[in-house]
Amino acid sequence: MSNGAIIETRDLRKVYRVGQVDVAALRGVDSTSSPASSFPSWDPPVRGKSTLFHIIGGLTPPTAGEVKVGGQNLAALSDAGRTKMRRRTVGFVFRNSTCCPT
Questions:
Q1: What is the H or E stretch that residue 10 is in?
Q2: Can you give the three-state secondary structure of 16-82, one letter per residue?
Q3: What pTM was estimated for this model as a whole?
Q4: pLDDT tens, 42-68?
């Protein structure tokens, strides 16, 4: 899976349980981001973006699949290890229209 990419996902899946129903937020996402690129914003909107970014940042575990950041498999990291990875490698800008007064 390693070819110099910073972020790699393989067959990434996330299913949430809503009441008695399983809802698939991600279905087999395969992606690679090189050091000079960033993940795109999708237009029109695509389901699962926030879930994908939360998994890549180590904030939420996937139901299945693999995520590597800088060649390190996130599943092999402790909570403290994922926090350290976020501090050094991954940046987030959360979009929340109610966050800031106008």
A1: strand 7-18
A2: EEECCEEEEEEEEEEEEECCCCCCCCCCCCCCCHHHHHHHHCCCCCCCEEEEEECCEEHHHCCHHHH
A3: 0.76
A4: 545 567 888 988 898 899 999 999 999
What Cα–Cα distance (Å) separates residue 76 from each residue in 6, 23, 36, 102? 17, 26, 25, 42
- Contact assessment for residue 37 and residue 28, using Cβ atoms and an 8 Å cutoff: no
Determine the residue type at 66.
Answer: E
Q: For residues 65 and 56, what is the distance between their CA atoms, to the nearest angstrom?
A: 12
CA atoms within 13 A on the CB side of 3: 7
